[in-house]
Specification:
By secondary structure, the chain is mostly beta strands. It is about 0% helix and about 40% strand. It has one domain: Immunoglobulin-like, CATH 2.60.40.10. It has no helices and nine strands. Strands 2, 4, 5, 7, 8 and 9 form a six-stranded mixed beta sheet that branches. The chain starts with 13 loop residues before the first strand and ends in a 12-residue tail after the last strand. The model has no long low-confidence stretch (mean pLDDT about 80).
């Protein structure tokens, strides 16, 4: 599921999903934020396991379903996040 932020000083790359549902679905206006050390603005993104956006921003709005991960020079690859189309067998969540 969703990973809390690492303590200061931990050398890892985190891929934050907003809103933090699991799995993320496109109709929720999913935003991915890559957090890690290294030069800001030098975030490489991978989609479905292949290099997708070499010098991308650290934050962007997802427009296509797939699996995403990011790579920061200082901390390496993030965990993979899946973003699904809303139609693929995921009914509308019931409201409590």
């Amino acid at each position: 599921g969703w990973c809390p932020l690492s303590p200061a000083g931990a050398q890892s790359t985190q891929l934050l999903v907003e809103p933090p549902w699991t799995p993320a679905v496109l109709w929720e206006r999913v935003t991915l934020t890559c957090q890690g050390s290294g030069t800001a603005g030098a975030t490489a993104w991978y989609k479905d396991g292949t290099s997708w956006w070499l010098e991308g921003p650290d934050r962007f709005r997802v427009t296509e379903s797939g699996t995403y991960k990011c790579d920061r020079a200082g901390t390496g690859l993030s965990p993979t996040v899946s973003v699904l189309d809303s139609e693929r067998g995921l009914g509308v969540p019931s409201l409590a």
